[in-house]
Structure formats: C-alpha cells, structure tokens
Amino acid sequence: MPATRQPQRVAELVSGLVVAAHRRHYLVDVDGHGPLECVLKGRKTTLACGDRVDVERAVTGGAIVDVRPRGNLFYRSDGFREKLLAANVTQVLGVVAPDVPVDEHLLNRWIIAAETEGCRFVLVVNKADLAGAAAFAERFEPYARLGYPVVRVSATHDVSPLRPWIAGQHSVVIGQSGMGKSTLINTLLPQTRARTGEISQALRSGRHTTSSTALYRLADDDGWIVDSPGMTIFGLAHCTASAIEHAFVELRELAGECRFRDCRHDTEPGCVVQAAVRAGRIAAQRVELLRTLLREAAAARDPAR
Known about the structure:
Blueprint: E1 12-22, E2 25-30, E3 34-40, E4 52-58, E5 61-67, E6 73-77, E7 82-87, E8 91-96, H1 104-116, E9 120-125, H2 133-138, H3 141-145, E10 150-152, H4 163-166, E11 170-175, H5 181-188, H6 192-203, E12 214-217, E13 224-227, H7 241-246, H8 272-278, H9 284-300
Parallel strand pairs: 3-5, 8-9, 8-11, 9-10, 11-13
Antiparallel strand pairs: 1-2, 1-4, 2-3, 4-5, 6-7, 12-13
C-alpha cells in the first residue's frame, strides 16, 4: 500500500518591526510574538531599524519577504558609501555634553539631516549636573531662537524633562562619542540593558551594542527610540541642492530674494543672505555650512568623479 503523502507545511506570514541589523541578518519584533531572527529573502535592499516588514515565520527563524513603504530614511552618505540609521523617524535627538568638545559644524549637519527628512530636531544637553553646565547650555540659545527645543537633562540623575518629548515619537538618538547617549537611553528605558545582550546574541554579531544601531520600544505607547553609534562625520551627499537650502529654516524667506536665481550666497552682488549675515541676523557659520553642503552635493553628482 503506497505511503500517504503528508501535506507540506506553509510558513506563517506575519508583520513586524526591524529592531537590529548585522549584515544580511535582522532581528524583527514580530507583532504579538516577540523578537525573531530573520534573513532578507531575494532582495538587494538594505534595511534599517524602524522598517516595517512582512516575515515568513518558521520553526527555525524567519525570512523577510516584503518591506513596507518608508515614510523617510535617516542616514548619512559621502557619495560613495551610505550608513543607514533609522527608517520612519519622526524626530532626531542630538545629544551634547559639557565635558566633551562639541563640533558645532557636525551638530548643524544633524539638524539639516533632520530637516531634509521632515523630522523634528531636539537638542538634548546632557550631564546637567556637572559644574559649568548652565553656562554651557546657554551656548545653544541661538538654536532655540531658530525654533529647536533645547532640553537639559542628567542621564545619571534626572531625565524627566525629556520624557514628554519622546512620548509617541519615533526617535533616533545621535551624538559624538562620550556624550552619554547609551546611558541616557538606559535611564529612559531600563529594560534596554538586558535587551542589548539579547540582540547581539540573536544576531551572532559579537559586536558591542554601541557599534551599530538598535531600536527599543517605549512601554506605554507605540513610540520607539533608536540608539546610534557615536560619530565624527555626517555626510549629506545624497541630498539635493534644493532640499539642503530649504533645510536652513532662517533662509527660507530670504533665499528667493537674491538678485540671481542660482546665487551661492557667497560673493555674488545683491545677495540678501550675505546682507543678513553682515547685519547679524544670520549666523555666518550656518551660511558657510550651506555653501559646503552645496559643494559636496554637486561633487557627489559629478559624473567625472
């Protein structure tokens, strides 16, 4: 008597949120089921924390078979390489501290990156318990005048001023090494201390958590926070010239009033932006950054490079 053929089991299709990545392996927080180690099936796309995906769930793991459309993608690039930080972001938390020299040129790049992706930018002044922290915080008053909230916290003592800003938001935390980003997240979300080890083990990465991005859900709502590695560069070569210029909030009403439509806001006659700099209404360093970013964007698109 011939053997009865057993029906082939069909993998269960579920949806989830990418919470960590290492090469082509991802950890997906599957809705209603918890974290699942997954591989990306049949795609050349690189995923980021915050991507929504569909997963074929099996006993041994999962396979990502579809990626939902992104609202945005927060990343840096230099024209040759890209480093994805997070997808579907609503705000960027830039962290500075008084005991680490702040690179304001880098800080302004974070702001421009947030603006180009339609994200709110919040400047978090950490280590408010240190001597001289109050005077240090006053240094960032010009950013507050531009409309960017400046929130003072101490990651080791009191983070309550930041809690209303993260509620319900999809945030990515960015900063130079030593600013206390990971400590800040551990204090805001104590469960992350255990989760970081689980993520590394699940992806078999063997890497310290601060060398890559990881996403942590907020307990009381659908918000989340992505912790990014400390960085000293932040290229924006992927941004168009028009997107870069629009990202400077103080220039939006002025840029179109220059005598020449393609004004670089440098030495051209009739430049209202340079006139505003001379009058003290616009910071010279912000205009210099604009020119630098426009040069970088043009170089990245030069076919002769």
